[in-house]
Amino acid sequence: MKEDLRVSVIQMEARCGETECNLRRIAFFAAQARHRGSALACFPECALTGYSPKNAGALALPADGKECRYLEGLARLHAITLLVGMIERGRGKPYLTQMVFGPRGLIGRYRKTHLGAREREYFAPGDGTPVFHTPKADIGVELCWDAHFPGLSFALSRKGAEILFVPHAAPQRAGARETIWNRYLPARAYDNRVYLCACNLCGENGQGTQFGGGLLIAGPDGEIMAQRYSPTAGMLTATLSADMLNRYRADGDGEMESRFFPAFARVELYD
């Protein structure tokens, strides 16, 4: 990272079949994030469409449809990078997708590669692990269950990701979410020397499923910088230090606790 930057993670209710209402919520929080000085704002998995695997086909939207064009315009309007989750229409089964829109237009999309047990019947897995080059930082995305596979975080870090965004659509109550996240998300940040920013849906999806929320930002030292666990909609914002990140990524064999561990991995032994 060339300079310090502000990022925001958002938890919000996304009701299935109420796309226009979901877009209004996204627009509200995008404006709030920019007001706080954030250069990047991440919304939960399926924030645009709502999350309901059994109804995925009916909820799926095209990645080039009017809704995504609106989000692209929103990113331009606020000169911000927006990461927004949706169910994306595919040729067969739909995808769980996180769209990335920058101030100059669409940057790319990530399709969830590791599907949960309840998702495999209804969704197709993605087959790429891209790193997105945004105006302020190089970022990677992992969707919910993805983050339980350490190799994905490792691969994204080795490809140059400086921040990992981990949007969720997880129904556990807030207290359980805090316990689970604190067990493994800071470790993903520490082992791979990345900032990690996680968010979750909250409220009800309009079809009887409740989401408990959860927001967390961890540093490349594995320390939790900020967190919020509440069942209500909200946003968490933090300033990420470029100096801290770059110290870990500098060349040389410094003290063990300050090294960029992925650079020393013997990946030829892993398969």
TrEMBL record:
Signal peptide segment: none
SUPFAM superfamilies from the UniProt entry: Carbon-nitrogen hydrolase
Source taxon at top rank: Bacteria
GO molecular function terms listed in the Swiss-Prot or TrEMBL record: N-carbamoylputrescine amidase activity
Residues of the CN hydrolase domain: 5-242
GO biological process, one term: putrescine biosynthetic process from arginine
Keywords assigned by UniProt, alphabetized: Hydrolase
A Pfam family assignment: CN_hydrolase
Protein name per Swiss-Prot or TrEMBL: Amidohydrolase
